[in-house]
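Hi R.,

As promised on Friday, here is the backbone we talked about, encoded as structure tokens. Could you run it through your design pipeline when you get a chance and send me back a sequence?
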């Protein structure tokens, strides 16, 4: 075989097996990804109009549901940067353009932060108002919610601070009576009616206008940030419908939160603004840097936690997170939080609804109940992920999934009917968390704070004394236990409905309820048994030693950690959310415990589980590849498959090329020297080939089906009467990633993860053997985990 004589170490340009020495001197200037000079050879001396010298419009773009090539995008960006830098000294205009280019990154994150903050404020205000609309209406000003309605009233008393003549329940308006069974039934009916109306409107808008607006959006955003393209997922329609339906879904009383969807809303803003700047609109990898910053802004406004948002973006959603993106995320989160603070949606001059201040320190003994709450959080997380995924899988495979509107209305009706009788489930979930977090003081009128003081047996609560619980507290405990069971069951069926639904708030509510129950139990234990050695050291009789609200906070963090498996960002979010800086150690203990317990039952969090359920091509960086397979075991074609579809560098006709493209569905084709030698030249993407052929047929005459197609620098020597050849060198990737057939798969998986590859070619002694794509790796991982590989792939 002749190619063995060729020196494999010569610099290789694809002009045949060996490069003539006089050609070597010419090389270098043309050895770029551009399209080299004109033609060579007698046939093409008719001065080839090499129209491919200018870039072909459309080449380098991607189809829907395809993965981007990170390496190629980074090269494109570097090329663009070099061009701008080389020109900037030519004129003042070019210098201004280079300044604009440098600042466009900061500008786009500023705009994203402004829009996210404004939309979050709008959503908060609208959701509060619509939530109160289920119970009644403000006569003095329709647009006021319950709390605002009674602000200006002089008739409120301390005990009944939420009752004022301006606020009328539906029973008072319709029946004219505030008390009695008739009014209760009327209020019950109106509550259910409004809940169903809101839910129906939300699901109808999602179904008709923007199917992508459903769910929390975080699994899809993780997938998009890893390089997958879902067109329209971050578009303007999705943004508009998601904003409107999020308000409706939260107001309908379903067991869902608005925090996850706010990340999706912020990413939509980031995507829309990135189209104003060519640096980001034309480069998919650069656009993902903006989306990372946008997701930080989303969490920043969802929880009023700017630093937590940056850490969330880093720990949970981002795939590629350079230092520059860290600064921009920080800035976007800052701008968004600033805008939200100026809008002041909660009227308490805070960024968050549940701001608490505890005054008692925690004691070492309390770490034991905190760790128990961590165990509960981990168990709940593992149970929730299994149950929710099983239900979602069932929804996909049965007829139930074909009627999303009916499903949403059923869940909303059950939720509303069960929720109304219990005051803890009737109120908005955020309000419930606020009440559970709050410390009992002389100003609290909540049922959870009805302690009998030792002094005089009255309801008064002297400052700083531990007190016995009254029947009020015990009935509150019962109601909370029922609310806990109700929330656990309803959240499993609600997450994954075709309405915008977040998971943060329901998980935190479940943890806060459990935590408050544990807190009250420990408090009563300390009250009745203050002579035990556990309490004797630090808890004097009559002193306020235990804060049940703190237990609620720790429980909330533990349950959220159990479901999402976040650690660092979660602790920071919770302490920014509540302002409880000195309680970082209990929070860390509970969150780490919940992660360990959850990981014992399964390594993936709820978002990874939903990514796998939907079959998105996502290589999780947290997963370890532990199998001892080699590249040749995974590559295609396998042993019994038809041979690999390849292109040769200069002896194919246009007709043959079009036949290969029409008969296969591959996304790209390796280009080789010749069928005999099988030596690799480069890789050409299917989309680029079709665009280049259409472009050539449109712009150049005499391109016919038996025109020769060549990928080399110079045209092959052709007979005088042959039709004009077509040069496709410009779309050839001259440096595709290659591994040998003996490379261990764990290294290949690492290369795919760290460089964000789409495909990798496998060679043996320099000859092409096969190709490995991201989907091949995912299929292989599924087979190794004994799953059906086809069931997990995105369809």
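Update: got your reply. Pasting your designed sequence below so it's all in one thread:
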């Amino acid at each position: 075989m002749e190619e063995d004589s060729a020196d494999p170490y010569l610099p290789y340009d694809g002009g045949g097996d060996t490069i003539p020495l006089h050609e070597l001197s010419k090389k270098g200037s043309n050895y770029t990804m551009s399209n080299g000079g004109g033609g060579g050879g007698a046939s093409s001396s008719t001065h080839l109009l090499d129209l491919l010298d200018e870039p072909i419009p459309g080449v380098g773009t991607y189809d829907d549901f395809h993965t981007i090539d990170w390496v190629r995008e980074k090269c494109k960006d570097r090329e663009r940067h070099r061009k701008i830098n080389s020109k900037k000294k030519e004129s003042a205009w070019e210098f201004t353009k280079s300044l604009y280019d440098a600042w466009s990154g900061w500008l786009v994150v500023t705009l994203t932060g402004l829009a996210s903050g404004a939309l979050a404020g709008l959503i908060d205000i609208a959701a509060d108002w619509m939530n109160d609309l289920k119970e009644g209406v403000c006569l003095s000003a329709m647009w006021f919610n319950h709390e605002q309605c009674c602000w200006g009233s002089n008739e409120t008393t301390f005990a009944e601070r939420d009752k004022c003549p301006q606020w009328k329940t539906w029973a008072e308006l319709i029946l004219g009576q505030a008390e009695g069974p008739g009014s209760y039934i009327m209020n019950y009916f109106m509550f259910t009616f409004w809940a169903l109306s809101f839910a129906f409107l939300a699901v109808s808008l999602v179904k008709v206008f923007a199917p992508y607006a459903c769910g929390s959006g975080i699994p899809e955003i993780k997938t998009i940030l890893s390089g997958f393209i879902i067109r329209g997922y971050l578009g303007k329609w999705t943004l508009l419908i998601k904003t409107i339906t999020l308000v409706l879904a939260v107001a309908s009383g379903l067991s869902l939160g608005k925090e996850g969807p706010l990340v999706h809303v912020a990413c939509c803003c980031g995507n829309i603004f990135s189209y104003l700047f060519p640096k980001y609109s034309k480069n998919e990898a650069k656009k993902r840097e903006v989306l990372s910053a946008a997701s930080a802004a989303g969490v920043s406004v969802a929880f009023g936690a700017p630093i937590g948002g940056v850490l969330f973006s880093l720990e949970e959603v981002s795939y590629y997170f350079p230092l520059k993106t860290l600064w921009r995320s920080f800035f976007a989160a800052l701008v968004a939080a600033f805008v939200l603070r100026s809008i002041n949606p909660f009227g308490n001059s805070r960024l968050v609804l549940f701001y608490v201040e505890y005054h008692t320190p925690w004691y070492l003994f309390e770490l034991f109940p905190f760790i128990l709450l961590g165990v509960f959080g981990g168990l709940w997380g593992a149970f929730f992920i299994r149950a929710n995924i099983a239900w979602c899988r069932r929804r996909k495979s049965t007829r139930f999934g074909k009627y999303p509107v009916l499903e949403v209305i059923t869940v909303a009706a059950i939720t509303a009917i069960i929720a109304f009788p219990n005051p803890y489930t009737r109120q908005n979930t955020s309000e419930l968390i606020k009440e559970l977090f709050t410390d009992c003081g002389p100003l609290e009128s909540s049922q959870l704070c009805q302690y009998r003081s030792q002094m005089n047996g009255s309801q008064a609560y002297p400052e700083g004394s531990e007190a016995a619980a009254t029947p009020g507290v015990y009935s509150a405990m019962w109601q909370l236990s029922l609310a806990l069971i109700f929330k656990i069951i309803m959240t499993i069926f609600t997450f994954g409905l075709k309405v915008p639904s977040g998971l943060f708030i329901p998980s935190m509510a479940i943890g806060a309820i459990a935590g408050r129950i544990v807190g009250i139990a420990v408090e009563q234990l300390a009250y009745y048994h203050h002579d035990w050695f556990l309490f004797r050291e630090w808890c004097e009789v009559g002193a306020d030693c235990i804060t049940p609200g703190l237990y609620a906070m720790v429980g909330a963090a533990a349950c959220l950690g159990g479901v999402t498996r976040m650690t660092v960002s979660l602790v920071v979010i919770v302490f920014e959310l509540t302002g409880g800086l000195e309680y970082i150690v209990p929070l860390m203990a509970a969150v780490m415990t919940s992660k360990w317990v959850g990981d014992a039952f399964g390594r993936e969090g709820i978002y990874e589980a939903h990514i796998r359920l939907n079959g998105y091509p996502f290589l999780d960086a947290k997963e370890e590849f532990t199998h001892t397979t080699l590249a040749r075991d995974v590559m295609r074609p396998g042993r019994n498959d038809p041979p690999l579809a390849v292109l040769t560098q200069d002896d194919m006709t246009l007709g043959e090329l079009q036949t290969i493209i029409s008969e296969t569905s591959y996304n790209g084709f390796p280009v080789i020297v010749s069928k005999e030698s099988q030596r690799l030249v480069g890789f050409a993407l299917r989309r680029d080939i079709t665009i280049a052929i259409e472009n050539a047929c449109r712009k150049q005459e005499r391109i016919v089906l038996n025109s020769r197609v060549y990928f080399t620098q110079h045209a092959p020597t052709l007979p005088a009467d042959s039709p004009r050849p077509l040069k496709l060198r410009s779309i050839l990737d001259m440096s595709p990633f290659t591994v040998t057939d003996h490379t261990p798969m764990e290294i290949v998986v690492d290369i795919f993860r760290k460089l964000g590859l789409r495909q990798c070619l496998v060679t043996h002694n320099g000859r092409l053997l096969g190709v490995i794509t991201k989907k091949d790796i995912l299929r292989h991982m599924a087979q190794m985990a004994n799953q059906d590989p086809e069931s997990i792939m995105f369809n």
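One thing I noticed while checking it: DSSP finds 29 helices and 14 strands in the chain.

Thanks again,
M.
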